[in-house]
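#struct-pred
JK: can someone run the complex with pyridoxal-5'-phosphate? inputs below
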Amino acid sequence: MSRFLNPRFQGIAPYTPGEQPTGRKWVKLNTNESPYPPAPGVWPAVEKSLERIQLYPEISCESVHKPLSHFLGLPEDHLFIANGSDEVLAFCFWAFCPRGAAFADITYGFYRVFADMYEVDSLVLPLAEDYSLTPSDYHALGRTLFIANPNAPTGLALSRQEVETILRENRESLVVVDEAYIAFGGQTAVPLVKKYDNLLVTGTFSKSRSLAGARFGYAAGRPELIEDLGRMRYGFNPYNVNTMTMAAAIASLEDQAYYEDCTARIVKTRDKAQRALQEMGFSCTDSKANFLFVEHPEFSAKKLFECLRERGILVRWFEKPRIQNRLRITVGSEAEMQALLEAVERIVS
Ligand SMILES: *Cc1c(COP(=O)(O)O)cnc(C)c1O
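RT: done, structure tokens with the ligand placed:
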């Protein structure tokens, strides 16, 4: 640490992402990326976009607003585009939490970091023993709520009705619903955006559209909220989404069939892997995401994590209360999951 850092940032523990190793060929099931390449149209679109690389990116992001508006079924003025949904979430903590934030004890680790960075007082609400979220815990807290749906790393999802109850009981507070994993089985809250001016839904192309490296995220909300996000963007980095990323996002949106096929394959692989793990004695949450959250009654998660790592398979283990005996396993390709299952079988038998 240099002597120049503002003391206010010195004690903040940064977000710890899963490892991104190079060198050895890993079966990488630790960061919830897609095992499939992006839509085939993405390559030529990105290449073509390079013709404009000497210019700043399109500042209105209009060309991507159009197809995204079509995909989400919302008018263009209900959309905000960002450098990954992490950026939208950062803006939300920065802009919308004058009375503090509230989120679950077991959820996306970045919420805590953003709260610390932007000096947001946060109320941490424990999930139930089975990791389910009790909507009534979130009623009328007078704070900005952050709910990952489906939740990470548990994979559990709230129904649209449950989300709507939370919105109704918090008319005076903003509710941010983080839908990073919505493509894998949850019910999106996007249709509620027109009805509730206290709802902001965030989404990402990192997981379901195989564009984690491109950094493309969005928010859907009423135009007043979108305008506020624009204010934050213009005070931070007006060119937050680069030309190649916009081209990639547009090409991805143009190939709806490919997107549906990939997400359906991941769901199918997930459910099959889940059954196989259950047969080996694991308990699994009812995951509606592109990962499984599993526990074995006899083998410590740490030990399993280490044994898998030795065999070239990376999964995620969190050294945190309440979940330290669980592994989060990203759903990879059929072949990757086969390799995982064979390795697990050998370890536990
Ligand atoms: C991955 C993830 C994000 C961030 O996605 P990016 O668009 O890649 O920044 C946000 N929320 C949750 C719950 C995630 O798991």
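RT: quick notes.
Residues 84-86, 108, 148, 152, 178, 180, 204, 206, 212, 217 surround pyridoxal-5'-phosphate (CB under 6 Å).
The mean pLDDT is 96.
JK: thanks, will look after standup
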